[in-house]
């Protein structure tokens, strides 16, 4: 026994064992606790006595295991589980970001770039530690900073479309601003150049004739309505009909007729300014609107058409183009639609007159041929 005479372990050791057991059980503190032994006793005597009282030692180790080792193991397991969950979450978020079609830019409130994750073949480039003003052109920087500051102030998401000119190319990006911290904004940047180009193509098709590239009738009518409510008067109108298109289609096919139409459209494009409206308003009919143009401008325009027509017909391409024209001038918006009707009527009068002259020439040539036989 620990307290028998001659024992190398004093009663203090017994008290220490009991104290440790009571202390560990009552406190539940997961700490390493040492048994108090008088320093003058040898370690061999201590080991002998502990082996002799193995039951007490086993109980002590059992309590220590339950109160110290087991909680430590549970804590380590929970920590490892949390780390694994965090790793999976980070991997998931990273995969989401990589799968997104957006580049991700994080910036501080002063414009300093914190992080930039570009997409492949990105047109834009930002470097961590620099200011966004070093990477953005001056013409878009103001809009960018305004959206960033608005996001920081009101906490709402903001979106802007910005156009960037790079050499001969133009690219478009949409910037989505999200407040990610008190003094930080995360921006999702998506390249929308293809979408913008496609939208522009759709707008062009909605207002232009596919074959000739001139404005179509829909745009012409919309422009006519706009002019009716404007003050850009006088407005000169020229209605043009392409002669002989039906004969060409019937004798040579519609492909030849299309080439004839394109040649006529090319003549009209060359005859007028980019601001003038030249539209294909029918299969073989064209209409020109000249805002703020009076009689002198109208006369010069008709003469220019005639000169260009002669030049085009001197080219041996197998297509001889001839126009019938009618003109009118609207001095006020009340006269606009009547002027269009008048120009159309004069065009048909011109066509009938020219056809009559042509028929008479054919009759005279036939009589002349008969006389020569």
Protein model, in words:
The protein has 373 residues and is α+β, with helices and mostly antiparallel strands. It has three domains: 11-94; 103-196, Beta-Lactamase (2-Layer Sandwich); 210-372, Reverse transcriptase/Diguanylate cyclase domain (Alpha-Beta Plaits, 2-Layer Sandwich), CATH 3.30.70. The protein is 53% helix and 18% strand. It contains ten helices and nine strands. It has helices at 11-27, 43-52, 54-99, 138-154, 193-207, 217-228, 245-252, 254-271, 295-313, 336-372; strands spanning 103-108, 113-117, 158-166, 169-181, 184-191, 235-242, 277-280, 285-291, 323-330. The strands form two sheets. A five-stranded antiparallel β-sheet has the order 2-1-5-4-3. Strands 7-8-6-9 form a four-stranded antiparallel β-sheet, with helices on both faces. Strand 1 (103-108) and strand 2 form a beta hairpin. Helix 1 (11-27) packs parallel to helix 3 (54-99), helix 7 packs antiparallel against helix 8 (254-271) and helix 8 packs across helix 9 (295-313). The longest helix has 46 residues, at 54-99. The chain is elongated. The termini are far apart.
